[in-house]
Give the backbone structure.
Amino acid sequence: MEEERREDMRDMWTSALREQEEAMKEVQSPQERREEELGMEVSDKLKRYLDIPLKVEVVVGSTVLTLGELLHLTPGSVVELEQKVETPVDIKVNGKLVAKGEIVIVEDKFGVRIIDIVNREERLKRVV
């Protein structure tokens, strides 16, 4: 049974990745497709930075609490966020917004499906 669950999970991830690849092909410009087909050569200046670890955050929501409310929090307290469940979440790299996404759950893990992304030039400006 455990093996069957693992196989189902692999199938779900494979399907999600396939959907992502198909969606990317639809939104790519002819220039981006050419770059991908040619192996997308990256400038020597940028290559030096490709192995630098970056902090990726998915911001589910936020709220404002008074100091008194904060001091009264205990284990089991629920903090209500301002965002609605269907509101896209922010995906930030090093504190800079790079995309919007939706939360997905596969088995017992969270993930985020990117639904909107900042264009490549803006992402580079914001992250590097």
In short: The CA atoms of residues 89 and 101 lie 5 Å apart. The chain has five helices and four strands.
